[in-house]
Structure to design on (113 residues):
């Protein structure tokens, strides 16, 4: 009887403790500002020179948005030489990818929809 009561107590504690530790948390993204060096729209690769950082290469996702002066938010309008702010998604598994690109008019103002 004593062993079954101990087992029942431990089992109930585990049942209440496991759901609290198994919460799903979204991976966080990173925001970077810099200059687009090159873009390959066929493979969706962007070569990006980060301000004060290295030149890095990212893929943009199929559902990525490019906010700029146009009414359409398509990454196909992205060209080399543009000063942009990118939102980089860091998944738990797989490579980092860009989800949002914002054209910067100058270093202080951002163009949002």
């Amino acid at each position: 009887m004593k062993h079954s009561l101990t087992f029942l107590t431990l089992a109930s504690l585990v049942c209440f403790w496991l759901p609290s530790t198994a919460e799903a948390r979204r991976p966080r993204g990173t925001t970077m500002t810099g200059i687009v060096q090159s873009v390959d729209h066929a493979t969706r690769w962007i070569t990006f020179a980060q301000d004060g950082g290295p030149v890095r290469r990212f893929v943009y996702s199929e559902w990525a948005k490019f906010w700029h002066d146009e009414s359409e938010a398509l990454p196909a309008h992205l060209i080399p030489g543009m000063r942009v702010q990118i939102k980089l998604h860091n998944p738990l598994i797989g490579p980092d990818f860009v989800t949002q690109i914002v054209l910067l008019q100058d270093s202080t103002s951002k163009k949002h929809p």
Q: What stands out?
A: The two ends are 67 Å apart (CA to CA). The chain has one helix and five strands.
